[in-house]
Amino acid sequence: MESVASYRALMGFISLTAIVFEINCEHFEKTLIEDLLMNYNNEVRPVENRSQVLIVTVGVQPYRLLRMDEIEQLIRMSMWYRLSWEDSALSWKPDRYGNITRINLPVDVIWTPPVGLLNSLDSGVALLFSGGEDVLDNQVQVEFNGHVRLLLPAVLSISCIMDMSMYPFDTQRCNLRFGTWAYTTDDLAFKADVETSALAQSKENFSSSAGWNVLQYRAIETKGNNNEESPSVTFTIELQRQTTYYIVILLLPCFSNVMLTLLVFLLPPETGERIAVGINTLFTMWVNYLRALNAMPKSPHLPAFCKFYYFVMFECVCAIAVSCLVISFFHMNVNIDQPVWVKTHILDRMVHLVFLHKSVRYRLKTAEKLKKEAEMFRSRFEGKSYPKITIGLNLFVDNSLKDFETFWRQEEWKLVSLVLERFFTYFFLFSVLMSFFVFAVTVR
Predict the structure, then answer these.
(1) Where exactly are the transmembrane stretches of this chain (predicted)?
(2) Which of 194, 422, 427, 436: disulfide with 354, CB 3.0–4.6 Å?
(3) What is the rounded distance in angstroms from the CA atom of residue 293 to the CA atom of residue 164?
């Protein structure tokens, strides 16, 4: 019983001590705040000498990219803003106030720097750090040495000039310029918060729902305005577009349409479907381009993707036109003799470029061989005493040679169409591959 009574007495003593200590702490904190704010003027810059420049450290940590509007030239982000400065009027000795080293004060009872995001599209941003209605409920942390820290969340729309020439493989750089028009560089100076900028570099601290990744985030300048000499600090955030969606939606259909255009050259001319396939493929490519164009942001600069698509469609149009030329040679009238330049440049020279010289040479030799055999067959019966047989045989040989001549003229034109078809097939493949290569190098 005595041990139980002793335990209860001990616990009661500890509880009473804790209550007394808490009351004393509340008393010390209340006394400290009253002493600090007794003669404090929140409209005066907290410096001991009027000529002294007050340094304000500005830290901005982007938290989430909410919107990227290329048409309106703006981005909307949620961010954490951190301001810190020294206020000698808010310093104290901890041993006089129960060893309290840090307190929280309402933001509207002390002086705060009138910092604003100068290139913001939202109204009232200039009052964001100066005790406006949006931040009256926030508090500042004040340390015993007079160091004041203010942490604020905000969702802002920021003006950003975007270059869409490399769309959809573009990288955009947007500036966040913080400054004030209330003071000059003789009164106020801004310094970038290195710690906050380092946190912003980490991808774990930034999330994007708009299809962009953060490549770099840094403070690029700390200086005054050239005309007003107002202090400012500028942060640059570099964003890279996520390209997987655009590769699947835009580039793969284009590549598949180009491969289908090859059917214009691979289908036999006898089918009569070459032109239909080419026109349908071109129409499909145009529909895909219009669909991509609707999703593409408007820009004064023609994106590299549009140039690439236009050039590929031009190649498809040329493929259809060349296919018409090849078909016209394939069905050329047999009564039309081949010009000398056709035989010289196409059947004698171009065949070597398309690796058809052996096939064409073999056909030409075969035709000459058949002609010689027919003439040799006729010469066997010349001078013989079989006039009726000779007359009938000559008539048969003449008709056969005439039919063979007609057939061979048609084959010669088909050889021309074959050589041209092979040449333009290689040229089309080369131009398409070069188009993809130049596009890849351009957007890299």
Answers:
(1) 245-269, 275-296, 308-330, 423-443
(2) 422
(3) 13
